[in-house]
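Repro:
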Amino acid sequence: MRKWIKIGTKAYDRVTSIVASKDVIKDISRLSSDGQTSYLEGFHSTLNHWIPKMTHFSWLGTICRTSSAVLHFNENVKRERKRSTTGEKYYSVTYPKFKYGDEVVRERKVPPTFNYVSNIKHVLLSTSKEELASIFQHYRAELQCL
């Protein structure tokens, strides 16, 4: 390992005080949570659902579908676990191919919500025609630049 700051210098003391501070150490422990990879895979699955790879979409269609996928994923990423009336969690058993038929027990989640749709409708219906036309012209000009 190459030492590029000599121990005992002002620079070394300053870097050490920053890197070894309580806040930085606490932040580093939060950077790599166990769920990061599964959330990324979940987002890719959502994206593939909204924009299938076997179908061609225009540039604007792709932007709209990507935006819809992001809104859907963000609204439903941390859904609560499904519970019975007595408060017990629901579980399901699956048999994935990668486990060669072995069962996997998973907690069931509540069904996804689609509240973002009503929010989009509200924005579209409350925006004036002139403003919508100017937004359309803005994106049309961007499309022609590509």
